[in-house]
Amino acid sequence: MSNFSKNLFWAVTTLIVISVVFSALFNKSAKPEELSLNQLADKMNGGQVTEVKINGEDLSIKLSGGADAVSKKEAEASLSETLKNLGVTSEAFQKVKFTVENQSGFQFWAGILIPTILPLLVIGLIFWFMFRQAKGGVNQAFSFGRSNIKLSNFGKEKVMFSDVAGLKEAKEELAEVVEFLKTPKKFLDLGAKIPRGVLLMGPPGTGKTLIARAVAGESNVPFFYISASEFVEMFVGVGASRTRDAFMTAKKAAPAILFIDEIDAVGRQRGAGLGGGNDEREQTLNQILVELDGFDRDTRVIVLAATNRPDILDPALLRPGRFDRRVILDLPDINDREEILKIHSRGKMIATGIDLRKVAVRTPGFSGADLANLMNEGAILAARGNKKTIGQEDFYEAVEKIILGPERRSRVISKREKEITAYHEGGHALVAASLKGSDPVHKISIISRGMAGGYTMKLPIEEQRLRTKTQFLNDIAMMMGGYASEQLMFGDVSTGASNDLKEASELTRKLVTRYGMSELGPVTFGKTEEMIFLGREIGTEKNYSEKMAEKIDDEVRKFTERSYAIARRILQTHKKALQKIAETLIEKETIEGDEFYNLLKPFKIKAIAV
Ligand code: ADP
Ligand code: MG
Ligand code: ZN
């Protein structure tokens, strides 16, 4: 709850309590009839009144029938005076018993004080609120230059190296840092300097933040976290003062780890920005450098910084004595992926006999964060299906959902469209299966997912960092499979092939201009420029002649035509197999890998080389 709502809550409660007390004091019983003084006078003249009790201004009246009534007299005048003025005869007066009651002290004072004090109290409360609010505002303005640095670790949140899967080299590097923090004496005695900054570099989601936390956990020191983007505000100078504050906080708690996330937000090469507004960033960066330089020889604060763009960092940051240690975090390979999946299956109700290795096989290119997300998606899918445990299919389903978007079973497609999609996907799969050295098909589906109408999933048997020309040619032929199949079966092509063609063209062009895999020989064409301020490849400079451009286009066309011809020939030769696949797809909508290869067995397809 915010401060304001807390205050409001208390104020309202106080008011309610006061009014309850108030009404308890003054409305003790069920209400008797209320008489005006005129009515009272009439009743007295009519002999209907037996007794009148006077209590301050209040009159409690007993009527002859035994009923009660109340009335009020004027404060200033005496009652008998008033009644006489209203024409009550002296005989009538004599018939009524008048008693004057003393007000109890409390009631008397409460009667006077509460009506005066209550409004004051309310006004006071309102002022108090406004004051509190205003003070908050002032505080906020003053805390501007302070970093909202977060101390987070220990207790249940403590992360250890065992919570980080894979990343063997990174762990080894960082184990050194842990040792420095634990036994600095050993190093200082030998005259070694304690490292100051370690830069963690790697694509998003590879576990940079996680491993930094683990370093703190292993060395059992406080972990201070700040994101560099928080340094930068609209006002010049704020970033620098926040930096100062963050370092000071960490130094006070030494030994400690100060983690600066996304340091590229301030650490970009100075003077590379577009237009103004970069002064602030530069000042912040300078301050970080100053702070790092200002560490004493035995300051036991180690600054870990993370970035996924090491290439754009200012060289000054990377100088010895600053972030001179660099740790690279790679995307996980298949073994690491399996391990990450295992870590994230802790605490989840996983069905017995689940093979996480098979899930790892299907997730090349996934980062640690993607895999954590995958396990969670699997659990959600199982819960949606009202299952007690998470099964293998849930994880497979989650993989596809993450790669291609959720299934859209509800999308209405006509019978004709379904047929086209089935032949299209069947074409991809059949070409893949008929080429030597091509990646095996894992699944074919004509259920639309995200933007795709259907999809054929093929995955390399083993993890590979290098790809060969043959593999590329296989890929291009397979991409052409969908187009060729539509062409062959319907004599027409649909828009469904457009994405395939785009990818195939891009790949073919790369083959020629970047990889030197064409007849033009081992040369590259075009100089790609990285634009620092956008952090992205945006332009390719043409560094070849028009004549060469023509030759490149020729080569690209040759590759494309050849791939198309191969795909078409395969489909033509095995038209029966293609029909079988398409029919099965129309019927079942998805075919798993094993099923697909079983389906092909009777056709005795002999794989050919591209
Ligand atoms: P980064 O900071 O590199 O972008 P994070 O450290 O924030 O990535 O990782 C996000 C999440 O992904 C982590 O909280 C963790 O759940 C998961 N994760 C990433 N890498 C690993 C790993 N190697 N082992 C276990 N979990 C990982
Ligand atoms: Mg991070
Ligand atoms: Zn396709």
CATH fourth-tier homologous superfamily of the largest domain: Peptidase M41
Q: What is the gyration radius calculated from CA atoms?
A: 42 Å
Low-confidence stretches: 531-535
CATH topology of the largest domain: Methane Monooxygenase Hydroxylase, Chain G, domain 1
* Ligands (ions, cofactors included): adenosine-5'-diphosphate, magnesium ion, zinc ion
Mean pLDDT: 83
| Total number of distinct structural domains | 4
User: Could you give the count of β-strands?
Assistant: 16
Query: Which range does the strand content fall in?
Result: 5-15%
Estimated helix fraction: 40-55%
Largest sheet: 6 strands, mixed
Total count of helical runs of at least 4 residues: 22
From the spread of the alpha carbons, the general shape counts as: elongated
Please list the strands of the largest sheet in the order they lie side by side.
6-8-9-10-7-11
Which CATH architecture of the largest domain is right?
A: Up-down Bundle
Protein structure class: alpha/beta
CATH class of the largest domain: Mainly Alpha
Cα-to-Cα separation, first versus last residue: 67 Å
Describe the structure.
α20 packs across α21. The chain has 22 helices and 16 strands. The chain has helices spanning 3-26, 37-45, 79-85, 90-95, 105-142, 168-182, 184-189, 208-219, 228-231, 238-252, 264-267, 279-293, 334-345, 356-361, 368-384, 392-404, 415-434, 469-490, 498-513, 546-573, 575-588, 593-600; strands at residues 33-34, 49-55, 58-63, 68-72, 97-100, 150-151, 197-201, 223-227, 256-261, 301-307, 325-328, 441-445, 455-458, 527-531, 536-541, 590-592. β14 (527-531) and β15 form a beta hairpin. The chain has 4 domains: 31-103, Signal recognition particle alu RNA binding heterodimer, srp9/1 (2-Layer Sandwich), CATH 3.30.720; 150-328, P-loop containing nucleotide triphosphate hydrolases (Rossmann fold), CATH 3.40.50.300; 334-404, Helicase, Ruva Protein, domain 3 (Orthogonal Bundle), CATH 1.10.8.60; 415-603, Up-down Bundle (Methane Monooxygenase Hydroxylase, Chain G, domain 1). The strands form 4 sheets. It has a 6-stranded mixed sheet, with helices on both faces. Strands 1-4-3-2-5 form a 5-stranded mixed sheet. The protein has a 3-stranded antiparallel sheet with strand order 13-12-16. The longest helix is centred in the N-terminal third of the chain and has 38 residues, at 105-142. The model is unreliable at 531-535 (pLDDT under 50). The protein is an alpha/beta fold and 610 residues long. It binds adenosine-5'-diphosphate (ADP), magnesium ion and zinc ion. Magnesium ion is lined by residues 208-209, 261, 306.
